[in-house]
Design brief:
Elements lengths: L26 H7 L1 H17 L10 H18 L2 H19 L4 H10 L4 E3 L8 E5 L5 E5 L2 E4 H11 L12 E3 L2 E4 L1 H22 L7 H17 L35 H11 L6 H13 L4 H8 L7 H11 L14 H6 L15 H24 L1
Antiparallel strand pairs: 1-4, 2-3, 4-6, 5-6
Helix pairs in contact: 1-2, 1-3, 2-3, 2-8, 3-4, 3-7, 4-7, 5-7, 6-7, 10-11, 11-12
Bound molecules: iron/sulfur cluster (SF4).
Iron/sulfur cluster binds next to helix 9, helix 13 and helix 14.
Length: about 375
């Protein structure tokens, strides 16, 4: 039976050429000519930037949804703003993900194929592989893995952001005859990730009409919206003002100096990912939060680090950070992984072990001790 696809939910699947009117003219040019559509486009950008969501009434027909989607991509490319680009990808992928919950398994496969995945389904087969799962209440269950995706297709999707998450590692999934077998929940996550990657690729390919005066006016308006929404984003990074050699490392008092430039490479890399508009993995977020909490930052200060991530959700992030800092539940304060575990999780960016210890916290303290010594020696030399 033919499967109907509601493209208002998945506008990224259609190319403009697949709709008669859009095949002739560029989407953003059509939008700019129509004041109603222009208004809708601005509202759409606002809801992406300010609330990280697509409102249900952001578009009302397939043609309109596709038009606005491609117009947003043009704007994203023209701003060159990585944070904005990642946020668009995230919002469209999360929006699609909510609709995927209600689709049949067959429809999920069709959508996967339209997104370029090499995937098949084995519903009703007697020998569907099953994955053993232990629930939180310690109940053991077997979940059928009826979605089979070729290893090549699978790795193309997970290699971008999910590579550090053990759930998606091949060794933790059923792999047979060149296919990875996934349960519905994991396959939906793979689809969501595929949408995220596709949106970013399409932004890269976009060719906005930079010579159009109307487009320039619209772009200026969007850039203003962007800068207003992100005004405080980097405020925290300016909190180190005094020159290093005159600052106490705080080692004697048990409060450590917070200086990102002295962070071990693994932590610096996660901070850089956030600052450049990237989206760190769950494990990276955990380790950065545990590291920052261990060097003395309070929950608010740790949260500040995550506020610029594209999917920041104050309520969820606060709960997680407070949990990691030992302020909730069992009151257990978590430490960052050991260097060995960081390496095994693909989070250590250096070849050789950093000096000073076997975990990022010990390494940071070692760097501070050296700084403290250099500071003292400097004072002694000035005094003699
Ligand atoms: S060796 Fe340890 S502290 Fe250094 S970058 Fe790797 S994980 Fe971080």
């Amino acid at each position: 039976m033919a499967q109907y696809i509601d493209y208002t939910k998945y506008p990224f699947i259609l190319s403009p050429g697949e709709l008669p009117r859009l095949g002739v003219e560029r989407p953003v040019v059509i939008v700019l000519r129509d004041s109603g559509l222009r208004e809708r486009l601005i509202n759409l950008v606002r809801s992406i930037v300010e609330r990280a969501e697509l409102s249900e009434d952001s578009c009302s027909s397939i043609e309109e949804c596709v038009l606005l989607y491609y117009a947003v991509l043009d704007l994203a490319k023209a701003t060159g703003d990585k944070w904005f680009q990642n946020r668009i990808a995230l919002v469209y992928s999360k929006h699609a993900s909510r609709s995927l919950d209600r689709e049949s398994p067959e429809k999920l496969v069709i959508l996967g194929r339209k997104l370029g995945l090499d995937v098949s389904i084995f519903t009703g087969e007697p020998n569907i592989p099953k994955l053993l799962l232990v629930s939180k209440s310690r109940e053991v269950e077997f979940t059928p893995c009826e979605f089979a995706i070729t290893v090549t297709s699978y790795l193309r999707v997970v290699s971008r952001r999910l590579i550090h998450d053990q759930t998606y590692s091949l060794v933790n999934n059923i792999v047979s005859n060149g296919y990875v077998f996934l349960d519905r929940r994991t396959f939906q996550r793979i689809l969501e990730e595929t949408v995220f990657n596709r949106v970013l690729e399409k932004i890269e390919e976009a060719t906005p009409p930079l010579d159009s005066e109307d487009f320039k006016v619209l772009l200026a308006e969007i850039e203003k919206t962007l800068s207003e929404a992100r005004r405080d984003q980097y405020a925290r990074s300016k909190r180190e003002e005094a020159p290093k050699e005159d600052r106490s490392t705080g080692l004697e008092r048990g409060e450590l100096l917070v200086d990102e430039e002295l962070f071990p490479p693994c932590m610096k890399r996660i901070v850089d990912t956030i600052r450049s508009g990237g989206n760190p993995s769950h494990v990276e977020r955990f380790n950065l939060a545990a590291f920052l909490g261990s060097i003395g930052l309070d929950a608010e200060e740790v949260l500040d680090y995550f506020k610029s991530t594209t999917d920041f959700n104050e309520k969820i992030a606060r709960y997680q950070v407070e949990h990691i800092l030992g302020l909730r539940g069992g009151k257990k304060k978590y430490l960052p992984y050991s260097c060995e575990k960081m390496r095994a999780s693909g989070l250590c960016p250096v070849q050789e072990q950093c000096k000073g210890g076997k975990n990022p916290l010990a390494v940071y303290k070692y760097v501070l001790r050296r700084l403290e010594r250099a500071r003292r020696e400097g004072q002694d030399n000035r005094g003699s």
